[in-house]
Amino acid sequence: MNKPRVWNPRGHQEIDPSRCEAAVSTVGMGFYDHQCKRKWKVEEEGHRWCHQHSPSALKAREEAEDKLWRDKAARRANSYKNTGLSSVLRRLRDAGHEDLATKVESALEKKS
Ligand SMILES: [Zn+2]
Fold first, then answer.
1. pTM of the predicted structure, to 2 decimals
2. CB 11 within 8 A of CB 34
3. For residue 29, how far is its CA from the centre of ligand 1 (angstroms)?
4. pLDDT one-digit tens code per residue, 53-99
């Protein structure tokens, strides 16, 4: 699981205590980090975060993405299965093997 990064001020920079402590990457001339611009709302794991960068928000977002991905994979697997089976049954029926198609169907129903 990803952890939010805490911003480390460099040089003349100073951490703004009213804002979220997360480091946000900016792509410009190379990579720069800057402090998140939002006001902090929650205190977790010794740091202050906005609702987007808190460790618990990050975890929730990762879990939601993970679930979305798993649901998608499951749906895809199901749709392949259904397409495969129904096309086999349709082909059997088209070829005049109605009884065989029915036997296959009932055998699969018993199995699952
Ligand atoms: Zn933030």
1. 0.59
2. no
3. 22
4. 999 999 999 999 999 999 999 988 877 666 677 888 888 899 999 99
Partners of residue 105 on adjacent β-strands:
none
The one-character DSSP state at 1 is -
Residue 67 CA to ligand 1 center (angstroms) comes to 24
Return the pLDDT at 22.
95
Q: What's the 69 CA to ligand 1 centre distance in angstroms?
A: 25
| Residues within 5 A (CB) of ion ligand 1 | 20, 22, 36, 38, 50, 53
pLDDT for 77 = 82
